[in-house]
């Protein structure tokens, strides 16, 4: 028989089993930790790439916006260059031939060409005379007492107003009729 007690052998095997389970658990925890480190590194790399992409997008967008603001009027200016050429020819011709009538006709033609160019871009002049005063379209410079027209009617247009694609870009400056007082109507008679 052996000198060792069978109870001691049982205890030794019981002690080695928990030690091997602990080692396996530690190994498993270490491998999970390593997997998490790898995943964190991948996510960090993705985040840094996305931040860099976003910064590039912001820079490109800012550069495009700056270019649009800087060169946005280029096509309009190209459309207006022939009008400038016509003005220059008209001015040169006016020096050589001081005939007022032909000079006036030339300027009138150029004015029409300029107005058509701007209308093709969405500009519309407002016709205000004889229409009711509207604060959305008109700036009243003064009111004139009138008995022959309805109060609030635009009598005269001092400066023309303009719409750009149905948006008011300049209000018309107008004079407006108001009701005549009894003193004013008596003074007119």
Could you explain the architecture of this structure?
The protein is α+β, with helices and mostly antiparallel strands. It has three domains: 11-71; 73-121; 126-181, Roll (Nucleotide Exchange Factor Grpe, Chain A, domain 2), CATH 2.30.22. Helices cover 62% and strands 16% of the residues. It has four helices and six strands, in the order αααββββββα. The protein has helices at residues 6-71, 74-96, 100-120, 182-188, and strands at 123-125, 138-145, 154-159, 162-164, 167-170, 172-178. The protein has a three-stranded antiparallel sheet with strand order 1-4-5. A three-stranded mixed sheet has the order 2-6-3, with no helix packed on it. A hairpin with a 2-residue loop joins strand 4 (162-164) and strand 5 (167-170). Helix 2 packs antiparallel against helix 3 (100-120). The longest helix is centred in the first third of the chain and has 66 residues, at 6-71. The termini are far apart.
* Number of spatially distinct domains: 3
The chain-level structural class is alpha+beta
Helical stretch count? 4
Strand tally, please? 6
Q: What order do the helices and strands follow? A: HHHEEEEEEH
Poorly predicted runs are none
Provide key terms for this protein.
189 residues; alpha+beta; Nucleotide Exchange Factor Grpe, Chain A, domain 2; 3 domains; 3-stranded antiparallel beta sheet; 3-stranded mixed beta sheet; 62% helix; 16% strand; elongated
């Amino acid at each position: 028989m052996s000198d060792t007690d069978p109870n001691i052998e049982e205890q030794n095997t019981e002690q080695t089993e928990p030690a091997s389970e602990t080692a396996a658990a530690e190994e498993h925890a270490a491998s999970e930790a390593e997997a998490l480190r790898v995943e964190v590194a991948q996510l960090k790399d993705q985040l840094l790439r996305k931040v860099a992409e976003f910064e590039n997008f912001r820079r490109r967008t800012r550069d495009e916006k700056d270019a649009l603001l800087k060169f946005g009027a280029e096509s309009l200016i190209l459309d207006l260059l022939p009008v400038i050429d016509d003005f220059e020819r008209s001015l040169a011709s006016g020096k050589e031939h001081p005939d007022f009538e032909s000079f006036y006709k030339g300027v009138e033609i150029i004015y029409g060409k300029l107005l058509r160019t701007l209308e093709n871009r969405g500009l519309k002049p407002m016709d205000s005379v004889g229409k009711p005063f509207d604060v959305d379209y008109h700036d009243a410079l003064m009111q004139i007492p009138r008995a022959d027209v309805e109060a609030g009617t635009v009598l005269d247009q001092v400066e023309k107003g303009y719409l750009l694609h149905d948006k008011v870009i300049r209000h018309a400056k107008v004079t407006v009729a108001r009701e005549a007082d009894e003193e004013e109507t008596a003074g007119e008679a």
